[in-house]
Write a structure and sequence with these properties.
Strand content: 15-25%
Oligomer: single chain
Shape: globular
Bound molecules: adenosine-5'-diphosphate, magnesium ion
Largest sheet: 5 strands, antiparallel
Strand order of the largest sheet: 12-11-10-13-14
CATH class of the largest domain: Alpha Beta
């Protein structure tokens, strides 16, 4: 008798705190899971990578957890995997997009999705030159962002200049800074749309009342009865608060048939982003501006339980559907 055997799943990761929900969901689908930590290692182009399916879970904020080589090593690792024809979920294309907000903006625009005006600048002179082209408030971000890195609000170029001259200015990896039109949202939340395997999974609102750090991961939201005020102290002018408390995430009425969601789905399909959390903010005129595509998206379990959708289970089920079972002859004891 022939019994299908599922391929082994290799998870490329950097932050162990984000792994258990994925690992458990994959195990529930019957996968054998191997974790591959990426920060130091070797890549031998002549050696074929282990058989199986690979999932890329490398975050652009790895360097903030002391893993300063992760992104560069992952880039080479993914190239090696794909050169050898390995199936990689959120492969190199998705990875490069996640590592650059400039590229995200280009891709979003290519798909006819409205974005805040965005400029990349490297170097003081160019930062100030870019700042002078904004006729209203703008925010700065690291091009290789995540967890609100480098996010700061400025009214004008003069304010930015003062900040550049002060202590503590950090332009982030490659000194690539993004300057972006600030969208002043009358409703204090942003919306995040979760897509897995070209399907809408759910949409949620993240409150921006306490700051602009909105990672929904349970690892970033460990206080079941916490309050937003208990979050980390916020440096003046900074829009970053983490960890945040619950109550910050709530269900969104946005549904699959929303035209913007349909555009997101097309974008994910065409750009080969199999797992994504895409964020937008709405201005006073109701225009929706999309500004962030997260491939290493995490799901908040409290919200998931409330709406009856477990994001990581959806991911694991998608992987189960998409991978071709390896067929092996097995002798069944009679
Ligand atoms: N252009 C913008 N206008 C207003 N608020 C923004 C804008 N861009 C980002 N934000 C706020 O800052 C948060 C973090 O920005 P984001 O680009 O998602 O960075 P990260 O990759 O660090 O999550 C957003 O969730 C949102 O609340
Ligand atoms: Mg974001």
């Amino acid at each position: 008798m022939i019994r299908p055997v599922l391929p082994q799943i290799h998870v490329l990761y950097e932050n162990p705190a984000w792994i258990p929900p994925l690992q458990e969901a994959l195990a529930r689908e019957g996968f054998r899971v191997r974790l591959v930590h990426v920060n130091e290692g070797l890549v031998d182009p002549s050696a074929p990578p282990p058989e199986g399916v690979w999932i890329n879970r490398i975050s652009p904020s790895s360097h903030t957890r002391g893993h300063v080589h992760t992104v560069e090593l992952a880039r080479q690792f993914l190239y090696w995997l794909e050169s050898h024809g390995r199936r990689v979920i959120n492969g190199l294309g998705a990875f490069e997009l996640e590592m650059s907000k400039l590229r995200q903006d280009l891709v979003l625009r290519r798909h006819g999705i409205r974005t805040p005006r965005t400029v990349l600048a490297v170097g003081r002179k160019h930062l100030l030159q870019a700042a002078a082209t904004f006729d209203g408030p703008f925010i700065t971000k690291h091009d290789q962002g995540g967890k609100g890195l480098g996010i700061r609000l400025f009214r004008d170029a003069r304010e930015l200049e003062q900040h550049l001259d002060g202590d503590g200015f950090d332009a982030g990896p490659g000194a690539r800074m993004i300057l972006q039109q600030y969208i002043d949202a009358p409703e204090r939340f942003i919306t995040r749309v979760e897509i897995v395997g070209g399907r809408f999974v759910f949409a949620m609102r993240s409150s921006t009342a306490g700051g602009f750090e909105l990672c929904p991961s349970d690892a970033c939201n460990p206080m079941p009865s916490g309050k937003a005020e208990e979050a980390d102290e916020v440096e003046e002018g900074t829009l970053h608060v983490c960890p945040t408390g619950p109550g910050l995430f709530s269900p969104s009425p946005v549904a699959e048939d929303d035209p913007l969601v349909q555009r997101y789905i097309r974008l994910c399909n065409e750009e080969k982003i199999e797992i994504a959390g895409i964020e937008y903010v709405r201005d006073a005129w109701g225009h929706r501006y999309t500004y962030d595509i997260n491939g290493t998206t995490n799901y908040n379990q409290t919200l998931g339980a409330r709406i009856g959708v477990d994001g990581m289970s959806e991911v694991a089920r998608y992987i189960r559907r998409t991978v071709t079972p390896v067929r092996r002859r097995r002798r069944i004891a009679s």
